[in-house]
Structure to design on (192 residues):
């Protein structure tokens, strides 16, 4: 089962490269950053796009925001190896700018395929860029930490929108909200 999932995820990686998705981003990136963690995870975390450290290492959330994410996982009695972490956009945008709508749209079908392969119980969006595709017309400041059940294609997903760890690193009140929301995740999963 796990081998089959890994094979499908590897195929997705190959498809993105062979179809030359976001070729302008690909040209200036070191790595295609697909994701990392447990492919049988109950929780998938989705950020927006890789930064410089992520691009260099080919892994998501390995910089300062990643360290903070690891701390929050530990506070909620979870380890990075328990969860799967990815981004909507799989290449680093130049100078860490926000991903453009057309870049997010280009990678969206691949993100959905990733979720169909992994089949998590909960999808945690980190920041508004990853939230807005799942929950358009919603404001993260109003719904952070609140599980929302949605239908995407033929699948039903439970989405929990959270602030992005990078934003929370520099904003005390957002940081506390993010930590509080994070600590609710194990409860949300139990209820499912």
């Amino acid at each position: 089962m796990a081998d089959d999932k890994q094979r499908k995820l590897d195929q997705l990686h190959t498809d993105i490269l062979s179809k030359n998705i976001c070729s302008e981003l690909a040209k200036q990136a070191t790595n295609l950053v697909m994701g990392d963690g447990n492919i049988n995870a109950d929780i998938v975390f989705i950020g927006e796009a890789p930064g410089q450290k992520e691009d260099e290492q080919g892994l998501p959330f390995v910089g300062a925001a990643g360290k903070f994410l690891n701390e929050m996982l530990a506070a909620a009695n979870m380890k990075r190896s328990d969860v799967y972490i990815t981004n909507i956009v799989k290449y680093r945008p130049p100078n860490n700018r926000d991903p453009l709508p057309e870049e997010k749209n280009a990678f969206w079908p691949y993100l959905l395929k990733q979720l169909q392969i992994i089949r998590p119980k909960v999808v945690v969006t980190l920041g508004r860029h990853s939230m807005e595709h799942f929950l358009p017309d919603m404001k993260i400041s109003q719904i952070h930490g609140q599980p929302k059940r949605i239908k995407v294609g033929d699948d039903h997903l439970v989405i929990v929108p959270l602030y992005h760890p990078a934003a929370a690193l520099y904003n005390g009140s957002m940081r506390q909200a993010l930590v509080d929301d994070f600590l609710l995740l194990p409860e949300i999963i139990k209820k499912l």
